[in-house]
Amino acid sequence: MSRHVLQAVGLVRRYGGLTAVDHVDLVAPPGMITGLIGPNGAGKSTLFSLLTGVEQPDEGKVVLGSTDITRMRPDIRSRRGLVQTFQVPSLFPTLTVADNLLVGAENRRRDYAGGLLGLSAQGRGRVSHSIERGLERLGLAPKGPVTQIVEEVLDSLGLSDVRDTIAGTLPTGALRLVEFARALCARPDILLLDEPASGLDSEETAKLSQLLRRTAAGGVGIVIVDHDVDLVFSVVDQVYAMVGGRVVASGDPQTVRNDPTVRSVYLAQAPLAAAGQSGEAR
Ligand SMILES: Nc1ncnc2c1ncn2[C@@H]1O[C@H](COP(=O)(O)OP(=O)(O)OP(=O)(O)O)[C@@H](O)[C@H]1O
Ligand SMILES: [Mg+2]
What are the boundaries of the signal sequence (predicted)? Predict the structure, then answer.
């Protein structure tokens, strides 16, 4: 099954007289990492919320594959392959790591089963376990048992040792990894990552970079917003730079880093001035 591209088309979001997102077009293809940068108040988080469905645009649309998802709720988007992780990991703290991952895997699976039955997006969320199991027995469930996906992800992320650990007892770095693992269990087409490096030390951030590259190499599209501009520039395939709600530059990291507008905006700011000196991307 080919994965879907995520597109923002002419997105506008206004708060009173302020236009937080101003006619933004963005394309996040599968297998690529797309970064979103900009100074404080540029509109990054607002655009992110429009993509996830937490906020609704005043104009424009969000399209996943050939489906207009602009009016779909975040949970429905997630079942259709647009999966987000949160700045504060949103795991079930009293469940084990493995059970947290099972929740991620089950959500996506229900959408498959509902799709086979021709149900609407809303109806798909209500597909029962018995219907799922029935489809499995008939050989119509395309992705193998959910437990198998969970074991694969635990193994590939080196989390097998903590599979039975209660999530709430893990330190921040491990929690972020479990949050990421849970998102992967949902078999995303596109992963939206909000500040994935916040709270991580430099070693953990380096591991995260590798993990993002590996995930994208497996065909998943990734959109990343992070204040760690070194991380963004070092890991992405393409960057969108926002200022005042608008995209002022986009393209490969080197092009965006050398863009005169981007330079003039960021050279005054310590973090990006450092990124500007940090050599070639990847
Ligand atoms: N709920 C809201 N109500 C009113 N104004 C808002 C709201 N959310 C964001 N804004 C305004 O929209 C603009 C864009 O904000 P946004 O949070 O998207 O920027 P950002 O690029 O994420 O900034 P930061 O780097 O500080 O996180 C800002 O001027 C902000 O004050
Ligand atoms: Mg923000």
Answer: none
